[in-house]
Amino acid sequence: MNITFRNINWTKNSGILIIGVCISAMLLKYLAQYYRGTWIYQYGSTISLLVFYSGVLWSLINTILLISKHKTELKNNLIWILLSAIPFLYIGIMMTIAMTKTIE
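The structure corresponding to this sequence follows.
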């Protein structure tokens, strides 16, 4: 499987970047826990939430752009579409699990 990033357009490259942004925001939230009670925790927690949810929104927009751009060849670009949709799907699945746990 030989993938070169020179031949990939910006919407496909964004899928990889989106995952990196969301993972780094989760890591920032985790690392800010050690500074609980300080200004680092207060601002780090807020910034990580903003970055994570903006990454999820970016994931949704980029997935829609990929689907609309590659409508005719969806099978060939399914990996890029799913890669771009991972943060959005993560939030959707976690919210579904959380809602079913509260109902039970």
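Residues 63 and 81 are 6 Å apart (CA to CA).
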